[in-house]
Specification:
This protein is α/β, with parallel strands linked by helices. Helices cover 60% and strands 6% of the residues. It has a 6-stranded parallel beta sheet with strand order 6-8-9-10-7-11, with helices on both faces. The chain has a 5-stranded parallel beta sheet with strand order 2-1-3-4-5, sandwiched between helices. A 3-stranded antiparallel beta sheet has the order 12-14-13. Strand 3, helix 4 and strand 4 form a beta-alpha-beta unit. Helix 27 packs antiparallel against helix 28. The longest helix is centred in the C-terminal third of the chain and has 19 residues. It starts with a strand and ends in a 9-residue tail after the last helix.
């Protein structure tokens, strides 16, 4: 193969023109859009083409050198000489650009700005180089075989046809290959009518302009029709007839239309663009019998009976940054990223912001402060020349038009503006009792409400689909900014009522978590810390618990702490919602490893529960359970066990033997029994708890998965048989399936597996798993979390078991130092790590030091638990070789 054409997607028209003329001159050419088919492996095909081509034609343009493109790999691969020391890379400039430093010394032939004959001669001269071909090139394959219309050849890109009225090209147009290239391919494949739809400001018109300019060479006629005012479409067709020479200037509209329709039937190399067409019925009559290409831009998505629809989305972040930098070249990466994020990657807003920054000299932080405090003013600034109006003005005009036709639709948009800029299920909004009067009546009629939602979608102020409504964050801000204070307050109350009526399901059930995830941003937006709606307060407490169950404690803590602090001041420390929030704050402290802070809060909260609601209230029992767990973490195993047993007994009395919450409490009590050495009883209770939880909840509920892990440990401690391994592997697999890879319970399951493998004597496997658990926990929770330190100590113990004590020793010493700083010298977990360090010291020959550490460990356990306690007996057993050893006497000189 002579040439492989390397190009950016936006330059496809140039690629086809170059490929056609090279093939016409007798060269063999490979072009992806001609020669690769759907299902081909892109990377493999590109590698084969680069290896098989004598030379690589590189079409230089700004898009070609964007860093995220494969074109970088293509020109870099070709930037070598062949065996005869001839350059493989043939650079052709198709648009003014600045190549990378490495390519600047190359002589690149410019093609743009030349007429057809000049460009063709320049191309073939560059292809031939200084030597002429030996003979006349063979006649090339037919154009039709090359994807062109029979008997036609592409004009040089950049030269529009004679019949042309498209608006000027936007010099700052950025990216959008993901829309432009598939759009071109669909039109060429016979899907002649394409619709670009999307919300206002997303860049539909700019895409249509770019397409018309970029692929103008493939058409003999391109006509742009402003379709917003349907009554003027006929006049624009009459103007087309005159411009194309189909009729004289004085011909009436009817004759002109007939002449245009005849032309459209008899010719196919034409493009018609209906811009801002909102009514499919007004456009449909003009498409009858059309053989060319039609491109429609619309805010209305209801075009499925007329053409293939493509929803135009906001920019990708790199496209946003590129647009901002085209207006403000000195913008730093972090500032451009932050600005794009706040503007929701909306092209019109980005273009306005870039222009305002360039014109005023405002910094990004200053601009964002103004955007937050004066949304309408900032978004009403002079729009860029490529857009007819500012974002704020566009929203305001659309709302005014809607108010005249459909006041209830305006009310619905205003309600939606009080939610977060995320999808809002329409089912949440159809509750008449919580809606403003002008909307309540419509909301009670499902058919009328559905039509209202569809009306909103057609005007392009919101995305409507999949039974949801979503406002772009800036559209939402503009609508809110235009509300009076009284109206905003009333709508806020309505939104609180709507959210309070949502029931996402149990926080304990992972199947309900997607609905909780959908609800949470809207709940945060209305700020339940300030609400007077008691149902909303309860929902907020449950949302905090959902975050904790999902394993997202870093999000849960600030959310629930604000609830607790605000409610304690506003409704008092003894209100049930304040106390419930306090429980979740304490739980968050516990999960963050902040055991002392959790203990202080629970010690304050539990007496309030008892005083206000009694010992048998479920909130009181939750607080008692948390206190028991925290006492266990602080080393007070006896008190912890007593509390856990009391909670289990009370839940049995209140909820029954087989209620999942009772069984969960039974499991907690069983684990606390293990801490005080009653391992056989612990195992018996865990066997019963797991069996009953499985019967009640199935095999995939988090309560069941936790019980499986706990029983696997209990089995390994008592019997160390294969059942424990099978159980822990089942728990680990199901945890990953149900909770996801990074949930803390999944890492805990890995830790359990390592413990079981260690007990079974599979030490290398156990060591690998303990290392994995430690590394993953450290990534999730940070270096100094108590659970991370325990995991690191467990890894150190495993290293000793596989005869890598020299590696274990510094790790254990560091863990001991960190644990001691958190808990003090006599905490059981600190003493356990110190005990393992003693063994490492003994293994590396530091017998005297090991004996000193071992004596300190035993003294600490005796102080904490008493002589003859379970903890002392365990320590004596594990340290027995050290305690029996006689340190070698020091040598005398």
């Amino acid at each position: 193969m002579d040439f492989f054409i390397s190009h950016a997607g936006r330059d496809r028209a140039w690629a086809e023109w170059v490929a056609w003329h090279l093939a016409d001159a007798g060269y063999t050419v490979e072009l992806d859009t001609w020669d690769w088919v759907a299902g081909d492996n892109f990377v493999t095909k590109m590698a084969a083409a680069l290896d098989g081509a004598e030379r690589v034609v590189a079409l230089f343009s700004p898009a070609y050198f964007e860093p995220q493109r494969y074109t970088t790999d293509e020109w870099a691969s070709a930037f070598v000489h062949d065996e005869q020391q001839r350059p493989r890379l043939l650079p052709l400039v198709v648009e003014e650009c600045e190549p990378p430093q490495l390519l600047r010394p190359l002589i690149a032939q410019k093609l743009f700005g030349l007429d057809e004959d000049q460009a063709r001669k320049a191309l073939l001269d560059a292809a031939r180089g200084p030597q002429r071909p030996d003979g006349r090139p063979e006649f090339p394959p037919s154009a039709q075989a090359r994807g062109q219309e029979a008997g036609s050849r592409p004009r040089v890109p950049g030269h529009p046809p004679a019949v042309w009225n498209v608006p000027g090209r936007n010099s700052d147009f950025t990216g959008r290959d993901g829309v432009l290239v598939p759009l071109r391919e669909r039109l060429l494949s016979g899907k002649n009518t394409q619709v670009l739809h999307g919300i206002g400001g997303v860049g539909k018109t700019q895409l249509a302009i770019e397409y018309a300019h970029g692929f103008a060479a493939g058409y003999d006629l391109v006509w742009w029709i402003d379709s917003e005012r349907t009554g003027l479409i006929s006049e624009q067709f009459a103007a087309l007839a005159v411009a194309a020479g189909l009729v004289g200037t004085n011909t009436d509209h009817t004759a002109a239309e007939l002449a245009v329709r005849k032309y459209f039937r008899e010719n196919s190399r034409w493009l018609l663009v209906f811009d801002n067409a909102e009514d499919p019925g007004a456009v449909r009559p003009w498409l009858s019998g059309a053989a060319g290409h039609v491109l429609i831009t619309s805010r209305n998505p209801a075009w499925n009976e007329i053409g293939t629809r493509t929803e135009v989305q906001e920019f990708q972040r790199q496209e946003s940054i590129a647009l901002l930098r085209s207006r403000q070249p000195g913008l730093a990466d972090a500032e451009a990223d932050r600005l794009a994020d706040e503007l929701g990657d909306l092209p019109l807003a980005l273009a306005q912001a870039g222009g305002t920054l360039a014109e005023t000299g405002l910094s990004v932080p200053e601009y964002l402060r103004l955007l937050a405090s004066r949304t309408n003013d900032v978004l009403n600034e002079k729009p860029p020349s490529s857009y007819p109006t500012s974002l704020a003005a566009a929203v305001r005009v659309s709302m005014e038009r809607l108010a005249a036709d459909e006041p209830a639709a305006v009310a619905l948009l205003q309600v939606c503006a009080m939610f977060a800029p995320e999808p809002i299920p329409t089912g949440w909004l159809s509750k008449p009792e919580a809606l403003p009067g002008e909307l309540a009546e419509v909301a009670g009629d499902p058919l009328a409400f559905g039509k209202l939602v569809a009306r909103i979608g057609r005007i392009g102020l919101a995305r409507v689909g999949n039974a949801t409504i979503r406002l772009h964050r800036l559209v939402r801000s503009v609508i809110r900014d235009q509300l009076s204070a009284d109206r905003r307050n009333a709508l806020h109350t309505s939104t609180e009522g709507l959210l309070a009526g949502v029931d996402p399901g149990s926080t304990e059930d992972p199947a309900a978590w997607p609905e909780w995830a959908r609800l949470l941003p809207h709940l945060v937006e209305v700020d339940p810390a300030t609400t007077e709606n008691e149902r909303l307060r309860s929902l907020a407490c449950d949302a905090a618990l959902y975050l904790l169950r999902r394993g997202d404690v870093t999000s849960a803590m600030p959310f629930v702490r604000r609830l607790y602090e605000q409610w304690r001041e506003r409704i008092g420390p003894d209100d049930i919602h304040t106390l419930t929030a306090a429980n979740e704050v304490a739980h968050s402290h516990y999960l963050l490893g902040e055991f002392h802070e959790a203990h202080v809060l629970i010690e304050d909260t539990l007496p309030r529960w008892r005083e206000e609601f009694g010992d048998d209230h479920l909130g009181t029992l939750r607080s008692m359970n948390d206190l028991g767990v925290i006492l266990g973490e602080l080393g007070d195993f006896g008190s912890s066990c007593d509390l856990q047993e009391a909670v289990w007994e009370k839940r049995r009395h209140l909820l029954g033997e087989d209620d999942p919450e009772t069984l969960h409490a039974m499991e907690n009590f069983a684990n606390s029994l293990s801490d005080i050495g009653e391992e056989l009883r612990s195992r018996e209770l865990l066997e019963v708890a797991l069996e009953k939880l499985r019967q009640a909840l199935g095999d995939a509920h988090p309560y069941v998965l936790r019980a499986m892990r706990d029983l696997a440990i209990a089995l390994a401690r008592t019997d160390a048989d294969r059942r424990s391994r099978d159980l822990c592997e089942e728990a680990r697999s199901k945890c990953q399936e149900v909770l996801g890879e990074d949930h803390p319970d999944v890492v805990n399951a890995i830790s359990v597996s390592s413990f079981v493998y260690m007990k079974l004597g599979e030490n290398e496997k156990a060591c690998q798993l303990r290392r994995e658990a430690w590394q993953r926990l450290r990534r999730i929770l940070g270096e100094n979390h108590p659970d991370v330190l325990v995991s690191a100590a467990n890894f150190g113990s495993a290293l000793i078991t596989v005869n890598r004590a020299p590696q274990a020793r510094p790790l254990l010493a560091d863990v001991h130092r960190r644990q001691r700083a958190i808990f003090g010298a006599d905490h059981p977990k600190v003493l356990q790590t110190y005990s393992t360090l003693a063994i490492a010291l003994y293994k590396v020959g530091k017998v005297a030091r090991a004996r000193h550490v071992a004596d300190s460990v035993l003294a600490g356990f005796r102080r904490g638990f008493g002589e003859g306690s379970y903890q002392v007996r365990q320590a004596e057993n594990s340290l027995k070789p050290i305690l029996r050893a006689n340190p070698r006497p020091s040598k005398r000189r």
